[in-house]
Amino acid sequence: MATLTRQDLNFGQVVADILCEFLEVAIHLILYVRDVYPSGIFQKRKKYNVPVQMSCHPDLNQYIQDTLHCVKPLIEKNEAEKVVVVIMDKEHHPVERFVFEISQPPLLSINSETLLSHVEQLLRAMILKISVCDAVLDNNPPGCTFTVLVHTREAATKNMEKVQVIKDFPWIVADEQEVHMEEAKLIPLKTMTSDILKMQLYVEEKTQKT
Amino acid sequence: MDDLYLDNIDEFVNDQNKIVTYKWLSLTLGVHVNTAKQMLYHYLQQKRNESSRTLLHATYLVSGKCVENGSTCHKVSVVREDKLDAVKAKMDMTISVHVYSVQRAELKDSSPLYNTDYDAVKENLKNCNKYSAISCAAAVPMSSTELQRAQEMASVPPVEKEISKTGLNENTSATSKPSAKQPAGIMGMFASKNASKSQESSMEVKTEQKDDSSLVETSKSKTASKANPMSNFFGKSAQKKADEKPNKNIKEEKAASSTAIAIIKKSQTSLKSEIDIKDEQSKVSSALKIESKDTQNKTKRPEVVDSDDEKMESQQKKRRRIKKPQPDSSDDEVVPDSPPVPNVQTPSPKKEVNREPVSNQEENSEVKRRKRRRVLKSNTFVDEDGSFVTEKGYVSESYSESEDKPEPNSQAKDSSSLKHSFGKREKEKKEKSQKKTSTTNKPTKQPSIMGFFQKK
């Protein structure tokens, strides 16, 4: 039907909205499944017609929402290449990295009425894969923390540093030690391809987590 | 029989890291569910005997009779393997145990089990019970002429007592009418069961009914209960089977079920669905609604509505329960008069109408009603030490039925890791945290989250 280009920001916003919603659910689910926080703070909610675990701690929720709020403009302009959820142990060494590789086709074309329900189905499958990822991953040491990194194309972050999208929520360039992990195993989890979005999820896991 | 299926299951479980439930397996391989259950069992035995390195986890479906708070009920649960013996020991009589799913991952909660079946069932929506062991020959979708006729009849206010739960149904009594027109076979079967009066016999009756009239809805009750594992008593179970209208009406009366330890009040739902088929929907819907209010207040109540076969008893029960919300209703905003839109009207011959007109007005679940109900709300505040405390408590709040959405209805303790609440995400009004800036600076220590838990 309609072939829209990236200039048609409305559609880009739609894709960014879908993706940010999904990333929020995914981050909560990763925190739940990998035991980063105690299960008591999680509560069952519904997303894409299936139950998912979301935290109800206000600070945590706010942090995740602010993070994604800053990431959204990058996704709209297709400047975000990867969104990575890094789980670190007590010494701030990463033990696991959940990498969401995102790419959007340059010409977004909506040529099917069932597009959104198809995308929903694919996202549901991603959620399912995250839920069972503990079968392929080793257990994390206790006392882990997490952080979210965004890899962008080109120099998109130059603008981000100048203009704070959210007041008092600055983004800084990540340390090398968080970006690169030694002795990493790569475990692919899921790939999804649709007309509006392509996403790949894999986990880089440290071979020895102490 | 060839053992190819063992290789298939092996591929699904080990190579693809899938959760293989018996329902998914039956739909994927095209076999009857009982065959699928046996396949899973054999696979499990084989793998366990081989003592291979790959660790397999399994979940089981256990159903049986147990006594809770003095009344017997039929309990159906999906349990993990390590809890299987404990659950079986708690039951007076275990009726059936079978493998529910096999997977490599150790599931922390049961949401992935539902997720697994969702798409498989959605694809086979029209015949998702093709391989099912539960069937009812009488449960067929209505033809378009019958449907039209039912809709025409629905526009005329009926003489018989018929209160449809419009606030809870998506379609209003258009669906209640078709279900009233179910073939006489079910009515006759149900009418014959009406003779029993005592509680005990009604218990047996229900189990018999469950077996005889194990309608499609029972299988749907399993799927719907999985479909709405956290959904409210009358949550809109419109997720999957929007096509079949009669079934939809039945589904809407599913009891709220929990996850790993699911208590599906099977006899209650089947009983209620049968009553629904009868013309006395009104009583049931009102009784159910009151019950829903009550279940929201209390924790998992055991089946209390029994002996609803007898009209008088059910009316008595309804009367008893109607009295409860009355004090609250006086605080409500002005209750509009019940508009008779889609044929919803309480006929006057009913005795209860004269006795308690106010409560009956409440019971006519019209489109727009203001009611009070107790709602699980999270309350976040800062306590003496400056830590955030979130408490969940039941708060009485008024609501209008037109905006009825699935409500959380479980216990208000957030220490339990398995929650029964299942609602849409609410925007919580809380103050902005002052700590969030420190969390983004990587060299500084992240504030501990345990402060959240120490103050309880």
UniProtKB/TrEMBL annotation, chain A:
Q: Where is the HORMA domain?
A: 13-203
Which biological process annotations from GO are given for this protein? DNA damage response
Listed GO cellular component terms? nucleus; zeta DNA polymerase complex
Q: Does the keyword Transcription apply?
A: no
Write down the InterPro entries for this protein, in alphabetical order: HORMA_dom (IPR003511), HORMA_dom_sf (IPR036570), Mad2-like (IPR045091)
Alphabetical UniProt keywords: DNA damage, Nucleus
Localization, per the record, is: Nucleus
Does the record bear S-adenosyl-L-methionine in its keywords? Answer: no
What is the protein's given name? Mitotic spindle assembly checkpoint protein MAD2B
Q: Per the UniProt entry, what species is this protein from, by scientific name?
A: Carassius auratus
Recorded name of the encoding gene: LOC113076423
TrEMBL record, chain B:
PANTHER family for this protein: DNA POLYMERASE DELTA SUBUNIT 3
Gene3D superfamilies, from UniProt? DNA polymerase delta, p66 (Cdc27) subunit, wHTH domain
Among Pfam families, the record links this protein to: CDC27
Q: Does the keyword Transmembrane helix apply?
A: no
Instruction: Please name the InterPro entries in this protein's record.
Output: POLD3, POLD3_sf
Provide the organism lineage as a comma list. Answer: Eukaryota, Metazoa, Chordata, Craniata, Vertebrata
Instruction: Write the protein's name.
Output: DNA polymerase delta subunit 3
Q: What is its main location?
A: cytoplasm
